Amino acid sequence: MIEEAYILIAEDDSDDRFLLQAAFEENGFRDKLMFVENGVEVLEHLDNIVRKKNDWCYPRFVLLDLNMPKKDGREVLKELKQHPELKKIPVVIFSTTNNEQEMRRCYELGANSYITKPNSFENLLKTVTALRSYWTHTASIPA
What we know:
The protein has one domain (6-134): Response regulator (Rossmann fold, 3-Layer(aba) Sandwich), CATH 3.40.50. The chain has helices at 14-26, 39-51, 73-82, 100-109, 121-138, and strands at residues 6-10, 32-36, 61-64, 91-95, 113-116. The two termini are 18 Å apart. The chain is built from five helices and five strands, in the order βαβαβαβαβα. The protein has a five-stranded parallel β-sheet with strand order 2-1-3-4-5. By secondary structure, it is α/β, with parallel strands linked by helices.
């Protein structure tokens, strides 16, 4: 059971999960990170929160890869943003896809932000710092 604020990260690539974990740790962030490997796991996890509302809290935000097995990020995004309770959770697309049409589509589906995965660990460190700072300290998110 998760009773504290955390960041939900949907990423199917084990190397990318490792790098994200390392980037948070190297920056000194102690946020709880919960990793899931596909879109089905994202939706199952969040559905459990809705069902056990008194015991669980929502993630601060979801970092969502687009290209995942079972259910891709676009499908997950669409379902989340159509759900009466889950639509308030910020969803940040985090993808290697750097295509303006794809970005536009994600924003139309309700993405709160779209970040192209950095091409170096140094840039990932900067991205994680900015991302975390914005979604945990700057943005106002309803409880």
